[in-house]
Write a structure and sequence with these properties.
With 430 residues, this protein is an alpha+beta fold. The chain has helices spanning 18-32, 42-45, 47-58, 179-189, 211-218, 224-227, 248-264, 364-367, 369-389, 405-422; strands at residues 63-67, 76-82, 85-91, 97-101, 116-118, 122-123, 130-131, 137-139, 159-163, 166-170, 197-207, 271-273, 277-282, 313-318, 322-326, 331-340, 343-353. It binds 1-methyl-L-proline (3BY), FE2/S2 (inorganic) cluster and fe (iii) ion (FE). Residues 217, 223-224, 227-228, 374, 378 line the site of fe (iii) ion.
Length: 430
């Protein structure tokens, strides 16, 4: 196991539980960490701390997995991996959405290796054990003996909740409460009729950076001016409608747009669910309606019941792994999954009305330009941040309360969640 030069996580020789000692050291570091500063180095590059993040955050909290419109019909499925846990999400009878560990109950083969598709049954590629879409084992060949009880070998379920078209999964045995999130997302997303969207474009990029650096970078626009010329054709640099940097001109624009949105009966209020979620609709730059190179719509067919393209962006944050923009003509959803201490998968999906016709209503190559450029710029920033943090010279630095309040909120959420969840994680999985 790598021990970084200035890590305080090195296990003492007498200890035979490296993750246990790492947990204690982590809690101690968190306890001493000054609020408003970036984290000590091991949080960004240590292999044991990465394991603790997986166990205490990604195997315990509700995570954004995908959109319900990605599995529109019975048999449609998507897969993802949360740490070492392959998961499958599948639509079954009567439109019910199920999530399972994507792991065969025979000898544990991953059941479904593909990212998405449509199946009649879930058939293991190894020895063809066959499962119903609700997880029941239907068939295990004839060689398992007459006393073999199929009922004992169903797929292991994973908690799943659909909220305004977003699919959230949780690997914990007792998932945290999600009722408020569901009611809030249902309310904000209702005008978009999210069941009737479709994915126009998908991009997956792997960043050579810790997942927290990817999220930290997203939580501020301090870097936007120097980094994102394409995005700034339409995006305001203010992160929230109550951003402390807001100018009188911006506040006046916000008030004017909010009156328009009230008349259309679409929600715009700033709502927070603890520090985990923030939803708010904010205007784009005056004269622009969509995050495109020219600020004009990328899709002629608007989403849901919307009759105006001028909806600003409904910005939806879900810690630890998603941020999203819903405009009038299209939406862009982002999912972050940790792959390793310094490796993170960022998946971006561009959504449009399901009846929008490619080549007629939208051009996917045009639609993706701004966020492809922005994602690549953000990838470089996160990777350079990681390179500097790996140095002997790195020490935690101060966040700006004016420009980086979103980062402070994220780090506060991370610290509280880790402190709450670390106490009862297993010592070391053997
Ligand atoms: O990978 C696949 O395409 C299928 C879908 C479900 C099981 N798996 C083998
Ligand atoms: Fe799945 Fe054998 S491991 S059928
Ligand atoms: Fe950025």
């Amino acid at each position: 196991m790598d021990v970084v030069a200035n890590s305080s996580l090195a296990p003492s020789p007498s200890q035979d539980d490296p993750l246990g000692s790492a947990r204690e050291a982590t809690l101690e570091m968190l306890g001493q960490h000054p609020q408003g500063f970036s984290l000590p180095q091991p949080f960004y590059n240590d292999a044991r701390l990465f394991q603790l993040d997986i166990q205490a955050i990604f195997e315990r909290e509700w995570l954004f997995a995908g959109m319900s419109c990605e599995i529109p019909a019975k048999g449609n499925f998507i897969t993802l991996s949360i740490g070492d846990n392959p998961i499958i999400i599948v639509r079954g009878d009567g439109g019910t959405i199920h999530a399972f560990h994507n792991v065969c109950r025979h000898r544990g083969s991953r059941l479904c290796p593909t990212e998405s598709g449509k199946v009649a049954k879930l058939v293991c590629p190894y020895h063809q054990w066959t499962y119903e879409l609700d997880g029941r084992l239907l068939f295990a060949g004839s060689d398992m003996g007459t006393n073999f009880d199929l009922g004992q070998y169903g797929l292991k379920p994973v908690a799943i909740t659909e909220a305004g078209g977003f699919l959230f999964v949780c690997l914990a045995d007792n998932p945290p409460a999600i009722d408020e999130l569901k009611a809030t997302f249902d309310h904000y997303l209702a005008p978009y009729d999210t069941e009737n969207l479709k994915v126009a474009v998908t991009s997956s990029i792997e960043e050579t950076a810790n997942w927290k650096l990817v999220i930290e970078n997203n939580r501020e626009c301090y870097h936007c001016n120097g980094a994102h010329p394409e995005l700034l054709n339409s995006l305001q640099e203010f992160d929230d409608s109550d951003d402390p940097r807001a100018t009188p001109a911006y506040r006046e624009l916000v008030a004017r747009k909010q009156a328009d949105w009230d008349a259309m009966q679409v929600p715009w209020q700033l709502t927070r669910i603890g520090k985990r979620n923030r939803l708010t609709r904010t205007p784009l730059l005056n004269g622009t309606v969509s995050m495109t190179m020219d600020g004009k719509v990328a899709c002629k067919r608007l989403m849901g019941r919307l009759t105006s393209a001028d909806m600003g962006s409904l910005r939806i944050l879900h810690l630890p792994n998603s941020w999203n923009h819903f405009m009038g003509d299209h939406a862009v959803v982002f999912r972050v999954l940790p792959l390793g201490p310094q490796r993170t998968l960022v998946t971006t999906k561009w959504l449009v009305h399901k009846d929008a016709v490619e080549g007629v209503d939208y051009d996917p190559e045009q639609m993706r330009k701004v966020w492809d450029a922005t994602n690549d710029q953000d990838r470089r920033l996160a990777e350079e941040n990681q390179r500097g943090i790996n140095s002997l010279a790195y020490q935690p630095g101060p966040y700006s309360a004016t420009y980086e309040f979103g980062v402070i909120d994220f780090i506060d959420w991370y610290r509280e969640t880790l402190q709450n969840n670390l106490g009862d994680t297993p010592a070391l999985r053997l």
